[in-house]
User: Fold 2-keto-4-pentenoate hydratase from Pseudoduganella plicata.
Amino acid sequence: MKLATIKNGKRDGQLVVVSCDLRHCLPVPGIAPTLQAALDDWEAAAPQLQRAYEALNAGAGTDAQPFDEAACHSPLPRAYQWADGSAYINHVELVRKARNAEVPASFYTDPLMYQGGSDSFVGPRDAIYALSEEWGIDLEAEVAVITGDVPMGATPETAAGAIRLVMLVNDVSLRNLIPNELAKGFGFFQSKPASAFSPVAVTPDELGAHWQDNKVRLPLRVDLNGKPFGRPNAGEDMTFSFAQLVAHAARTRELAAGTIVGSGTVSNKQGSLHGSSVENGGVGYCCLAEVRMYETIEGGAPKTPFLKFGDTVRIEMHDDAGRSIFGAIDQTVRHYEEKAR
Amino acid sequence: MKLATIKNGKRDGQLVVVSCDLRHCLPVPGIAPTLQAALDDWEAAAPQLQRAYEALNAGAGTDAQPFDEAACHSPLPRAYQWADGSAYINHVELVRKARNAEVPASFYTDPLMYQGGSDSFVGPRDAIYALSEEWGIDLEAEVAVITGDVPMGATPETAAGAIRLVMLVNDVSLRNLIPNELAKGFGFFQSKPASAFSPVAVTPDELGAHWQDNKVRLPLRVDLNGKPFGRPNAGEDMTFSFAQLVAHAARTRELAAGTIVGSGTVSNKQGSLHGSSVENGGVGYCCLAEVRMYETIEGGAPKTPFLKFGDTVRIEMHDDAGRSIFGAIDQTVRHYEEKAR
Assistant:
């Protein structure tokens, strides 16, 4: 089934079931007012939501409304946990290569993961707000899952069974703040502002055969200012599956229902700068930092600038028939003063 | 006023107003069912909660119940954000001195802060669960505040005005997992399992003159296995006030109501290993790591072990008359298998 959260003036919005073709939706206040409420009591809520979804797809009932992606908040407008992995080691290899450093061997067996802020996500069609372009504003297109409760020390098999929903993410990163912040030793904080998630979150079964080994085996479609920028397959070169990422997060503590675990920037192994861009036949990139790393490796310095105010980022994923699965994240970078006005 | 959350079988528990002397409490479902709900609509809820608090203290009404700290969950059983600073630079200085390293000059002007997990806190009288003593289980006794909404780029003055409540924390840390995790560069994750907070959260005015410059100028009382272990003054040697810590957290993003910001391990400047312990007239320590650092600096290696299964930790703060302000965190370390049983 497919679920979304419609903005209604409240902090958690209103849960709706969305038709498979993303054309209609149905509020389900009798089942759960919000997505977090449904996740809190998933065993009871999920079968009812599934029935509502099937009825909506069959055109039954009269309460269906047109579904408007622009009216959506992120599926969880705020969450109790956002833990973002870095499962595409190719991305890490490029980072290291650009600064002439080796990738530690442990990185291939022990996932990188950071604790992200989850108190107020951005809607999929809302602006990326920043106070300065000098922060080095970058997108990071990723896949993420939402889990149920997970016990401490869960195996990847147990973790796999706790995966409830899949969605897309734009994990906005402030590149120019990262070096100083990581040098302090406590990880990202100011360099990771609010993320945005796709309008729709779907159960893994919606992905059919493309949900394989707890990975999503489909191309992620990233456009920058209306032009194709990335088309990497999210199922390829993913060193750690979502089951492994969730188990990593749960090694020393329980995870509570509604925990979001991200894949990290999707990144496929490619050759050179020239051949890796979409226009030259490559699969492109899911963040500006990656093309800048190719530029650094080959030319000694990055050339492509980070995002400027007015730039747009679109992140989407299509099924085999070219239909959008999750709806599109589509954001414009804006100065925070415009929001305050 | 004083607020607490009573366990009621639901994930967020039930909000109660607690009498100043911690003897009685009053459910306030007509005002807000949970503390998060009150924080979400603080302008409306706070005056009503204050009136209920005053009536409870005056002995008015008949719905008052005996207040039982052992029936409490953490004031926010789960939160949308837990950002923990490291405001007592003495602690950082000892960490560095123990490994013969300098403290970077920027650490005195730019706070250390990490994003903690907030999906499922531990109750103040619940066990500290771990799967292995080999993890190096340690307490960290701290003070924390809960904020309302804070705009991006807020000044310390604006941040100060957004501080809603104050409470105590045991920020459990797994010391033996920290070096490898920080070496990976993404900060703490597995090394910071679930924290526990004091039974009661109080508005800053409850601290009277002891809430000064957005610091709590009172000794934090830490007992280990029933013996005094730490008595440092939380208002001394705090390099960054809570206003500064909240502003740091908000530099590049908005903070949503219910954000918890911690002080980091309370630590006062002292002299030597001998003189710093409570039994020798010092103010002691708020974590085992600190006494181990003194041992390393003076003897080349730590001697004091980390926590073992069965060890107990008690964290409290008294007013001038010796009365508990927040109630006591009082936890026993246990193997997670005991919970699963």
Chain A has a mean pLDDT of 96.
